[in-house]
Each structure stands twice: as structure tokens, then as C-alpha cells.
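Example with several molecule types.
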Amino acid sequence: MKLSKLYVLMFIVAAFYNANGQEFLEGRISGNFQFEAQTSKEDEKINADKVREGVLSSGFLNLNYNSSSFDVGMRYESYLNPILGIDSRYKGNGIPYRYVTYHSEDIEVTAGDFYEQFGSGMIFRSYEERSLGIDNAMDGIRVKFSPLAGVRITGLVGKQRYYWEKGNGIVRGADFGFSAAEILGDMWSSDYNLDLGASFISRFQEDDDVFYYLPENVFAWAARANLSGSWFTLNTEYAKKYNDPNANNNKSYSQGQGIIISSSVFGDGIGFSAEVHHIDNMDFRSQREAQKTDLMLSYIPAITRQHTYRLPSMYPYATKLNGEFGMQFDFTYKFKRGTFLGGEYGTTLQINYSQVNSIDTTGIDKYTYDSKLFGIGDDLYFRDLNLSLSSRLSKDLKASFTYVYLLYNKDIMENEGAPFYGDVTSHSVVADLTYKLAQRTAIKGEIEHMWSSNDWQTEDRIPDNLNGNWIMALAELTLNSNWFISVFDEYNYGNDWDDKQIHYVKGAVAYVHETTRVSVEYGKQRGGVLCVGGVCRTVPAANGFYLSLTSSF
Amino acid sequence: MKIIYMTAILAAALFFAACDEVEAPYQPDASELINAIGPNNKNVLILEFTGWQCGNCPKAHHTVHELEKLYPEGHIVAVGIHAGSYAVPFDGPDFRTEVSTQLEQEFQAGLAGFPIGIVNMKKIDGSFLAYVSAWEKEVFKEAILEKQVDIQLDAKYSNSTKEIKVNVAVDYLQPSLSGSNLSVYLVQDSIIAKQKNDELKPPMVEDYVHMNVLRESFNGVWGVPVNASSNTREFTMNIADKPDWKPENLRVVAFVHDYKGTREVFQAVQTKLTISE
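Resulting C-alpha cells for the full complex:
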């Protein structure tokens, strides 16, 4: 039987299944759809290549049937051919994701594809991030069980998605979660919550390498504790991974470990949070040869702020899983209305600082090294100091002003640590104003400027499209709740090469109706790095149209 | 009943918590396995995507060189494909060719990031592209296979006519492979030119020795089909207008591959030019 017929049969069986004597019509069908198309012509100035196919397109349709006892679902995907920035190995179309889930009061069983995360994800997170072309869904069996109130157990086995194939490794794991408040009931003070958890992951991959003795079963475990009250949270997780020589850690046989500690306190109009993490040899994948964003098991988001403004986001940070020590502090204060700084409507001040360093390691031999928990290395990878003030200046005018200082170690981020580029230092300022013209009509204006300098000033320098100062202006008009028009220009006026001082102008029109959104963009897109949650992908430059259609039902 | 469930899940979790700890020595002596490889085994074609601006590429060049030393002579057939953004000349050498560019575009090697290669044009886990860390293992997997095709290759160069004349005879040891494509490339060794090497400081090396540089193809990127019944081909190329192509450093690479099917390379051979007046 062909697979597509099997999926249709699955739906029919699920739809007509008479669980517990109930009618199938109790269930509901839901889903969502997305389609993107892109053209690009050759533009030597911005390093954009002509799209050979004329038009590139990517799309998917999720379809789910949910009833009281069963859920059935699948996703059709099409990449003909993948849009720029999405890995060419997605080329093709088909149904890579399908599942059946049975659930009762205390047990849930899924067969097929599923996403899952244990704790913060340090040793296991199976997820999709379409904008980066990441989908490491598990294909296998998952059982979730709650034997007692406040106790949650998850067990799973499967293989991860690898474009249109599966990775070689078999992933087995279990997670145990305990909620003190739920378990102890009245015996527990209701002012606090304490959640404890532990997870285990083991990957099996055959050792077919004649040049190395490789561990076929690689094991990792993690333990976590989260305490929270009405005015604070304290979260911590420690993880350990046993010897896992792979393509990303230079075939190191050393053990890996990681710890994340984060805490926040908050009160009336004030909040403070602090986070530190120490990551050492925690690149864990379901196949030891996998690289880039392929077949990731571990997920450790960047400990730095993810900037949404265009110019500061030009130099994003991605977690260095082989080793980094990071810290981040965030302070928020709301000046009350009627005060000097609070004005008529109140003003919010946010200050954020983060820094990431190397870790201190000592090589033992070609295969192993020694390192200590919280041992901080001398190399500075990244530093970010940013502050923003946002306020409503009048009944119809909202304003936000932001300053961002960044130090970006380009060698670490883009050159595998080899000394070549040095650091990039940038200072950005952003003014973001939104004026309400009518009930559903508003105009937004944004001006950004970035002063940027870099250490890379040798004779051998190769022209690039990023260096130097930038200015950006954006205007966005919300005509009503359906129509949106925007235009922006990013101008690299400070590029060290005159012919690279380019305006990247782009215009967009979007139409929204209920759950459907259509947008068309046209213009120049600078090449760069796109990051989501500290995971990044290089996106090439483009010059052309981009169409997007999304809908859900 | 719930206790039984819980115990079963705990037992399953512990059962899955398998862990192997490897202790030194971490590498076996593989020389015996390598020494067993002989003339009846398949040669291995490495298509290496590279560029003079690619600072990590010298590591890959080194890996190729180490593999060439490790295996019997002629067993590793390497072709360096200079293409994509790392090969744009600016003030460096321009080793790009139409063939290189087409190969890079076909396999989208630039998107995956240089250095990257293709071993005997076989897919590894769904992709033709293999990172350098995988080459050693993948080359060995291919090198222990018995060859299915024999290729006799002869290449002559005349100093007076500046012409390269290549004769190729394909012998299908496995008759079902008849009709496979034959590609014949020209590569050059020992070119002294600029190369970025991130392991050095400063990283730009002015007199780097470039090996295996793909210069041209005798019969297009993908070659031509060759049947068992008509198994010889002759190619010529005049290089009078290529003063930098030193005949003593040129090599001809010929390989037979399943162009219309899996693309797998069945055999690859190489020879230096026999130079005459």
C-alpha cells in the first residue's frame, strides 16, 4: 500500500473509530497552511545570484483530527525548490510528518512523528523552526504517563528527521517531572512552587569507523529544579554527557557538561533577572557526523538578547556548544505616570547586559582535555549592553528609544575561532514612533543608525557588504485592520568600499482577513545571518519578489 | 496498577540508558586493512569544493594529501573545484571554470559551506556532500569495494602542437553497467598562488602550493555514455593559449559514473601527461 493511501486510511479509521461508544463526530479537524515564493535576479553589488528556476517556493499544510481519545495528523511539505537560505537538501515534496496519538486520563501514547523537550532542552529538544529550515522531529513511539498527581513521566524511542530521510542514530530517553505543590497538596505552602525533574537520553549509532574506536551508545543525563513564588523565580539545570567524539568537537573523547542558573525578582513596576551558564562540549546530535543545524538533540539558547531591530540584529550571537561561559542581567523599571520621567502615561526603562567568554580548558592529549565547571577563559566572544525607554507621549503617540552597544568576535562567530577578522564593535540608536491616526489606522516610523568599526584592516581584506556605518528608515502604514503597507531603506553609507555603499530598499504590502494573511515584498535583501533562539543560519542576499500566504482553520 | 506502570516505565528508561565509555587507545592500527587494498579494489574520486579565500580549506587539502599518502599510489583521485564566493578572485587567483561553477551549482556546495566534498559521487545519509571529518571513513568504505569497471587511460602532450591527446578504454567488469557516462577532466598540480589559511597568522599565504586544481573538461561536466561494445574514446585539447598550464604539472582524470541513475562513480583513474617534442 502506498504511503499516501495509508495516511488517508489513518484518517478514516480515526474518524470512524467508536471509542468508548462515542460518535466520531465529536472530533474536530484543524490545521494551517503556509506558502512562500521568491524570485531573485543577479545583483553583483550585493552578491545576489539569479534564481535559476525563476521562482523558488516552499509550502506546507498541517492537518489534524482531534477527538476525545484519538488525535491523528500529518503535514504535507513542498520545497520546489527551497527558497534562499533554506537547505537545498529539502528539495522535493511529500509527507514527512504523520502521527496517531491515543490519550486517556493518565496515559498518552504517540506513534509516528512528534516534537518533545526535556527540561530546558540541554540534552533533548526535538522541534521545528521553519524560518531557519530546522525540523528535527522524532519518528518513533512516545508514552506520557502520570501515575500520581504532580508526577509526569515521558519515555520515547525513535529517529530524528534528516530532511527527507532519518538520521542514523536511535534515540532513547525518559523524563521525570515532579511538582511538589501537586504531590503534597495541602501539606505544601501555597506561596511557592517547586518543580524537580530528571531526564536521560541515550543515542545508539553503529561504530563503522575503522580509524577510531567510537562509543556506540552515548549517554547524557540532566537534573533540574525550579522554585518560584509571587515575587521571584529560580531555575537551574545541570547536564552531563559522556564521551561523544563527533564532527563538531574535533573528535574529543572528553565528557561534556553544562549548567544553567537563572533567577528573577519582580515587584510593583520593577523587575530584575540574572542568568549564567557554563557550557562545555555539549554539542549532542543523533548522528555523530551531523553538522550545522542537522540532527541536534541538545538545545541551548543564546544567553544574549535577541534584537528585533534590523541594524542591531546584524551581529547576532549563537551559542558555542563546544564551550562558553555566559551571563546576562536584565533590569526593568516603570516610572509612574505623573512623575518627571514617567510623564502623563508612565515610562518603562529597560537595561540589559550580557557577556560570553570562552571556558578555561587544558589539553591532555590529542583526544581529551581537562576543564572545570565555571572556569572562565580569556577570550571574549560577545558583549551586549542595551537600554531602551518607551513611553506614550500623548494619547495617540507612542515612542521608544533604544541604544545598543555590541562587541562581536567575528573570528569565533564566523571563522571557527581562527584569527583573521578580529572584533566588530558597534553602537546603534533607534527611535521608534507610532502615531494613531484613527481607530484602526496608524503610522509607524523607525529610524536606526549604527556606528560600526572592525579590527579587520589588513591589506588582504576582501570587500564585504556589512562593514561600516549603516542608517535605516522605515515607514509602516496600518490602513485598517486588513491592509498594511511598509517601506524601508537600509543604507550602508560607511562601507569601506565605495561600490558597496548600497541602499537596500524594500517595500511590502500585506492583507489580513480573519486567519489568512497575504503579503508581497519587493526589493533588495542584504545577505546575513538569521538567528532564532540562538540558532543561526546564513541567508544569502536577494533582489526580487517575495510572496507569503498563511492561513489556519 | 499504576505502580506496575511506573515500575515498567522506570525499568524501560534504565534499560535505554545505555552508555559505552571508550578508554585509550582511541585509534586502532588500521594499516593492515589499508595494506590489503590492491589493484582489484576500486579507486576513490574526491571532488573537493574549495577556494583561495576559504581559510579552512587548507585543512581539507591536507586531509586529501594524507589520504593520498595512506592509500596505494593512484588510489585516491582528487579534483579541487574552485567555485562559489570563496573563489572570486579580487586580488587572488582565478581558478574558476565553467565546469567548476556548474558542479558547485548542481550540488549546492556553497550553501553547505566550504570546505566540503563528494566521495565517489555517492550519497551519504541522503546527501552527496560530505564534510571533511567524514572523508577518511567514507573513502575507506569505497576503497575496500571490488572495482566493477576498468579504465585504461593514456595522455600525451606535444610541445610543438601544444596539444593534449587522451585515449580512454572502458572495460565493464560488470556488464550491466555498460552505457555509463565517462567524464575526462584536466587538473593541474603545484600552482603557486595566494591562499588564505586560518591556521596561520597572518593567514594570507602568498606562495601557497595549490594541488589538484580543476582546469577544464574534455567532454563537458557530465561526460558522454560509453557502451561495452564501443568502449574507446579519444579526446584532444589545445592549450596554446594557456601559458600558465604547465604540461609537466597537468594530470588527466577519467571516471565512469551512473549519470542517469544514482550518479555513483564506478571507477576513477588518473595519469600525468607523457610529454614529447
